[in-house]
């Protein structure tokens, strides 16, 4: 690794995590038998938020993501996710880097959704519907534009100002963007959809197109939800449901509230092992988060510092 300041701000962290490199590192990580990811600690806070302690390691790198999630900050100048990812050298125990936690979370989540769409979406060209115009909405917009070549995007948000701001950003990227107040109606015109809201209520419930792909990333506890139960059961019956990791068994609120057997759904690792053909019919990819994705981000950042 090149000599550099170990403490990186949001801009410096993002610069070390370009989406093509991050997706490639996620693929490598899923084939790396040395990776270990202990169960994450989630500690409720008196404010209604949560403290997350998420370790992961391989034969060379160990990381811990230490972040707070504060839903009450949604719609305020304060970020809902705050914290850091600390990266260590396994051999010496030395601290190599400290990455900006919210930036890592946003970019690795969008990269996982992008990889799933690249491998699983029946119609990957869009238009793309984004429900939720916050940090994750921005990250998914940029990732899908760069990684899939999406040129048209429809944005839905409970905050009209946030939706307009994200649409304006999309236009600076050369995309055609429009805002809608009816995400369910827009789903009929969009074969790609991402839900990235605070997951306090159902935001999509209409049935998707036969060639639809939905990446649901907002809900990561049994009580959180973005997708209607009828929608989830419909895709499970007529198409295919995938989860990011086996941890979704205890975390995928959308699927659990639909009373689906989450343990029967294939994971992204199963997909990458080449055991599954590209599915027919609508696809739901449920992402709950995993410290392994943060480890992949740390490895990507270290490669960038090393000039690899």
TrEMBL record:
It comes from Polaromonas eurypsychrophila. One of its GO terms (cellular component) is cytoplasm. SUPFAM superfamilies: NAD(P)-binding Rossmann-fold domains. GO terms for molecular function: hormone binding. This is Ornithine cyclodeaminase. NCBIfam families: PRK07340.1 (NF005603). It comes from the Bacteria.
